[in-house]
Write a structure and sequence with these properties.
single chain, 322 residues, eleven-stranded mixed sheet, 10 helices, 15 strands, globular, binds threonylcarbamoyladenylate
Length: 322
């Protein structure tokens, strides 16, 4: 099993940062999910991420910075990106922008594209770790490819096992859902992945409607290759919009009016709060991902605000496509 350091004490951050500089992998918390971090400027370190996750190498990675200025040193800014960065960084927004000619980040992180996905995480401890590492960190979610995203150090340890040497344990992730990914085509912003910042919040800030490319992304590797249809999948079937329980099923509930008869019920948010539901989603999927159950039934989740990202993850988890 990997070593877990259960605090962000200076000596622990120092140790983790020096492992990064030595080209090794360290899993660390962000406000969204745990990331599997490596020195983004080192081809060999980044390659280790793909190996550890068993991730197809056409799938690009998000690179994490300790500050806005550090991020914009590697990618071309535009007015809209700057507005979004000012409003939402540090925070759960990822911007896909053109690499600068002198971008230091390994081309492996871009997986053959001329763009790079960058973000500045909200969790202050994570930013301090990145600062002390002295290099941007490539960090996809710290789970085996196609698995459920990790929102605790235990999830990381059970998914990656010895494929990661060290885990910085920061407790449960606040948002519990990956960052929202925005890309630019013909200078216009598009949404590539629904995530922890609701689309409406971004549209409000920009005073324009975003084109939704999340569906296109399923089919065109070109836009957002990470959006594979079968993703986030547990090992047992998931059935969405369930109003009744079938024999042997566990239930992911939402709100009141919970149907009876499930082997086990976990309510994402009894009061119907979508942010609370988002924070509990992956944790609950981990908990119910057991062959003790015939499958997992999920009650309907409203399709607005963070509900859009939650439903997106659930649809991928329930997909039988590969
Ligand atoms: O919240 C998060 O974003 C977490 C934490 C650890 O920061 N990270 C994360 O990374 O979810 P990852 O690698 O699992 O997801 C990367 C997403 C994928 O959907 C991928 O296709 C998209 O970002 N992406 C990355 N680089 C891209 C690029 N150059 N063009 C288009 N999409 C890109
Ligand atoms: Mg992931």
């Amino acid at each position: 099993m990997p070593e877990i350091l259960s605090s962000f004490a200076q000596e622990n951050i120092k140790r983790a940062a020096s492992l990064i500089r030595a080209g090794r992998l360290v899993a660390f918390p962000t406000e969204t999910v745990y990331g599997l971090g490596a020195d983004a400027t080192s081809d060999t370190a980044v390659a280790k991420i793909f190996q550890a996750k068993n991730r197809p190498d056409f799938n690009p990675l998000i690179v994490h910075y300790h500050s806005r200025d550090a991020a914009f040193a590697d990618v071309e800014r535009n007015d809209i990106a700057l507005t979004l960065a000012r409003k939402f960084w540090p925070g759960s927004l990822t911007l896909v922008l053109k690499r600068k000619p002198d971008c230091r980040v390994s081309l492996l992180c871009s997986a053959g594209l001329d763009t790079l996905a960058v973000r500045v995480p909200d969790l202050a401890d994570a930013r301090e770790f990145i600062r002390q590492a002295g290099t941007p960190l490539a960090a996809p979610s710290a789970n085996r490819s196609c698995g459920i995203s990790p929102t605790s150090a235990e999830h990381v340890a059970s998914s990656l096992d010895n494929n990661v040497e060290l885990i910085l344990d920061g407790g449960a992730c606040k948002a519990g859902l990956e960052s929202t990914v925005i890309g630019f085509f013909n200078s216009q912003p598009h949404i590539l992945r629904h995530g922890a910042i609701a689309r409406e919040k971004i549209e409000e800030e920009l005073k324009l409607k975003l084109t939704d490319l999340t569906a296109v992304a399923d089919n065109q590797a070109h836009h957002s290759p990470g959006q594979m249809l079968k993703h986030y999948a547990p090992d047992i079937p998931i059935r969405l919009n369930a109003l009744h329980i079938k024999p042997g099923e566990a239930l992911i509930a939402f709100g009141s009016n919970v149907p009876a008869g499930a082997e086990k019920t976990v309510n994402l948010s009894p009061s119907g709060d979508l942010a609370e539901a988002a924070a509990n989603l992956f944790k609950t999927m981990h908990l119910l991902n057991s062959n003790k159950y015939e499958g997992i039934a999920v009650m309907p989740i409203p399709e607005y605000g963070l509900g859009i990202a939650i439903n997106d993850r659930l649809r991928r988890a329930s997909s039988t496509a590969v």
